[in-house]
Amino acid sequence: DAGVTQSPTHLIKTRGQQVTLRCSPKSGHDTVSWYQQALGQGPQFIFQYYEEEERQRGNFPDRFSGHQFPNYSSELNVNALLLGDSALYLCASSLGVNTEAFFGQGTRLTVV
Amino acid sequence: AQSVTQLGSHVSVSEGALVLLRCNYSSSVPPYLFWYVQYPNQGLQLLLKYTSAATLVKGINGFEAEFKKSETSFHLTKPSAHMRDAAEYFCAVSVRQAGTALIFGKGTTLSVSS
What we know:
heterodimer, A: mainly beta, 7-stranded mixed sheet, 11 strands, B: mainly beta, 6-stranded mixed sheet
């Protein structure tokens, strides 16, 4: 079992650019949640996808959007990148919204 | 609304000493509470969770936590620290028993010296 896998592990983008991060959930899981973890902070909930729809959303601007595919994998898109978007982005998967979430190792995004 | 406050951004203990990491929560509904550990350059691993079945919760690696409603606390303890316990620890709250859509504290870095 590969667990939750995220790609890429690191990337560097320029202010104003757009970025797409990817997440493959743990085998058997159908729900994906995304978190942003700024340096020295705890993770902050961005949104959750279940049955290819955004089910819950945290306090993030519309520049943050996502998608879930029929195979349950997910993408996080961030438009018009700001320096403050630099963070570790964590993906967590679960079976439905009422089972334990397992976290991936994250994607480290640096905006310069 | 829910929130979590972790008291002390950095805790240092000697190997073999008691570990105590403090967490206080605020919730308008009965909370589900969690402790996660994060090792450098890794994701989060669940240590234990409170889901109202028992107030004293035992987790992995010898950690345990006690839910105290009167104090709105969920402190994490371990009787004897090991070097391998050095990591970042996060307390989190959720309205869901499973712990999805978690609200995390800012974390406490645990250092263990020999």
